[in-house]
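Title: Comparing notes on inverse folding

I've been comparing how different people in this forum approach sequence design from structure. To keep things fair, I'm posting one structure and asking everyone to reply with a full sequence. Here's the target:
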């Protein structure tokens, strides 16, 4: 990937960008969680200028319109043993901090479930059908982050709203439309949350690949000075609700149209698309799948 100045990277972003979608588990509802930064190029750049390895800092987290204070820690580790390893960043809080009390209130169902299961059989994670998430975004302010929560009931609501929607229409909105934050109705808010996440993951991947198509490597942004790559879900989002980065690739509009018209089968191990006529095409750029 070509080098870009970190300030330039951050200038290109709108007001907030995606950092991490985290499954709620026992530790997150007690004391904190790690943020894997290995594929999050923008966050890595930002962290480097903000908090050095071995340092910790008070930060603000906006959660449901309230601001809470927690600690951001860039853990020190044996650099001789792990040369070139990316930073290990953690968000930490005390088990009685107002922030985690609020989290437990939001994720009460998960908290009750984990409390019970942990005692009987040491379970600290939620089973697939019960999964709930916290999603972390940056804001324009250096020491302030934004935290969204996606509960099981949110996921069910969203599933209802988008079922029957055409995948291309769903993706078009995530790629090209501004997320409407003004909506007030409950169901709409849930759709906004998932759209914000979907858009943010896509945008961070576009940036990660420097606006090049992962199949043909073409970068229109350089030649024509416009950003037109699109985020595509390998497994259809409207049927799987999967917008993890490992289900999203970045494509030029041409390859994106081809995907939806021809419906090739993707080999997840070899990173090859096989089209119905037997033609094979592989990802020439891939650092995140
Ligand atoms: Zn392409
Ligand atoms: Zn698509």
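Reply #1:
Here's my take.
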């Amino acid at each position: 990937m070509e080098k870009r100045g970190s300030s330039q990277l951050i200038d290109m972003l709108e007001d907030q960008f995606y950092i991490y979608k985290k499954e709620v588990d026992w530790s997150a509802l007690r004391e904190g969680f790690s943020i894997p930064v290995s594929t999050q190029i923008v966050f890595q750049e930002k962290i480097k200028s903000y908090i050095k390895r071995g340092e910790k800092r008070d930060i603000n987290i906006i959660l449901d319109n309230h601001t809470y204070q927690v600690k951001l820690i860039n853990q020190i580790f044996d650099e001789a043993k792990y040369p070139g390893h990316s930073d290990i960043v953690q968000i930490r809080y005390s088990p009685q901090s107002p922030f985690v009390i609020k989290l437990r209130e939001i994720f009460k169902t998960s908290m009750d479930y984990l409390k019970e299961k942990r005692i009987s059989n040491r379970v600290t994670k939620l089973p697939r059908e019960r999964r709930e998430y916290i999603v972390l975004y940056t804001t324009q302010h250096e020491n302030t982050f934004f935290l969204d929560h996606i509960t099981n009931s949110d996921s069910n609501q969203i599933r209802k709203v988008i079922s029957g929607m055409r995948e291309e229409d769903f993706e078009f909105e995530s790629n090209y439309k501004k997320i409407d934050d003004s909506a007030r109705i409950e169901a709409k808010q849930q759709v906004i949350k998932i759209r914000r996440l979907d858009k943010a993951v896509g945008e961070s991947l576009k940036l990660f690949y420097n606006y090049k198509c992962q199949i043909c490597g073409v970068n229109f942004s350089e030649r024509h000075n416009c950003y037109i790559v699109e985020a595509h879900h390998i497994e259809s989002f409207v049927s799987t609700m999967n917008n993890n980065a490992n289900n999203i690739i970045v494509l030029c509009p041409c390859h994106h149209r081809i995907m939806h018209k021809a419906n090739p089968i993707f080999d997840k191990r070899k990173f090859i698309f096989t089209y119905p006529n037997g033609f094979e095409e592989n990802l020439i750029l891939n650092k995140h799948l």
